[in-house]
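Usage example:
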Amino acid sequence: MNLRRDVFQAIADPTRRAILLLVASQTMTAGAIASNFDTARPTVSKHLQILTECELLQQKQNGREIYYYINAKNMKEVADFIEPFRQMWDDRFNKLESIMKNYKPKN
Amino acid sequence: MELKTKISANDDEQGLTITREFDLPLALLFTAHIEPEIVEQWMGTKVLKLEAKKNGSYQFETSDAKGNVVFRANGVIHEFIPNQKITRTFEMENAPFGVQLEFLEFEQLTDDTSKLTIHSIYKSVALRDQMLKLPFAQGINMAHNRLQDIVNKLK
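Running the assembly step on the lines above writes:
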C-alpha cells in the first residue's frame, strides 16, 4: 500500500485540511473539533477517522473522552505540503482544458 | 493513475517546476494564457490588465462575495514569443513573499496535445517553501473557492 498517496488524498479535502489546522494548535476532542464546522457531526467523525487511518492524527483516551492530536512526524512527510499546491494548479489546468475545448475564436 | 500536473521542488534550490500535458493544440493552450477573459475563468481571479507583449504588464485582483479585495498580484512580461515562451515576474501585493521570476514554456506534443512547463524562481528557499505551503495554510485556497463558485454556477 502506498501510504504517501493516502496521506495526500487525506489532505486534498478542504474540511480535513481545516481540521488539521485546528488540531495543530491544540489537542482537541471530537466534539470540540465538530463544533467548529457547520458540517454534520457524523461527517466530521468520518473525516477524523480518515485522518487517523492515514496517521496524520493520533487518538489519546483521557477518561471518557478521546482527544485528537497531530502526528508531527507524518505531517512532516507530507512532502512540504506540496500536494495542496499541486492540487490547486491541477484544478486550474483542468478548468483551462475544459474551457479551451469549447473555445470559439473571436471574429 | 498518473498525475497530470506535476510539481518538482528540490530542497536546496529556490525554485520549483510545474509541468502539465494538455489535450489541447498548442495554439489553444497559449491563447488561454493571453486572453484576459479566459485567464479570469481558469485562474479564478479578475484580470485588471494583461498586455500580452514584451515589456507589457499584468494585474490580477480577487474579491470575496462581499466585494472585499482578498488578493492582488502584478508582474511585467520580459519576453514574449507566441506559442513558445513567456518570461514574466509575479508578485503578490501585501504579501511577504517578494517577487518571483517565471519562465513559461509551451510545447507542441502532437497536433492535438501540448505541454506547459512553468519554472518559478524565488528569492530564497524559505520564501519558495512558504509559497508552496500557502494553499495548505489557508485551509481552503481562495483560487480553489473561486473555482468552486464557477463550477457551481455551471451546475
